[in-house]
Design goal:
Distance between the termini: 109 Å
Shape: elongated
Largest sheet: none
Order of helices and strands: HHHHH
Number of helices: 5
Number of strands: 0
Structural class: mainly alpha
Helix content: 40-55%
Strand content: under 5%
């Protein structure tokens, strides 16, 4: 009896309760406002660091060239790729078992 009474007092909207004309709107609380302000502050700080990087474009152009990271990674990738796959095969080697006679052309009368 008490459960049905409480269900009759509050009617839920049809369909999705968070979209549409008759949606449920959460009340704005101090906690929600504080969370939103904190998120905006973090985003503003990120945008500041993106606008003012530690290195300029000229400084960052070749700063890791002496480490040779890219060339060593590329070489390691090539080695790993060659280990995974079989060596190069030629058509001559693949079809050599079909070669029974040297004579390929048919001569009449023999």
């Amino acid at each position: 009896m008490r459960l049905t009474l409480s269900l009759f007092l509050f009617k839920l909207p049809n369909g999705n309760i968070f979209s549409g004309k008759h949606r449920l709107v959460k009340p704005v609380t101090k906690k929600a406002v504080a969370l939103l302000q904190r998120d905006l502050a973090v985003e503003e700080e990120n945008m500041f660091y993106l606008r003012h990087p530690f290195l300029t474009r000229e400084q960052s152009k070749g700063h890791s060239k002496h480490l040779q990271k890219a060339s060593t990674r590329l070489e390691q990738f090539r080695i790993a790729r060659n280990e995974k796959f079989a060596k190069h095969k030629t058509l001559k080697n693949e079809l050599s078992h079909l070669k029974v006679k040297e004579q390929w052309e048919f001569t009449a009368g023999s």
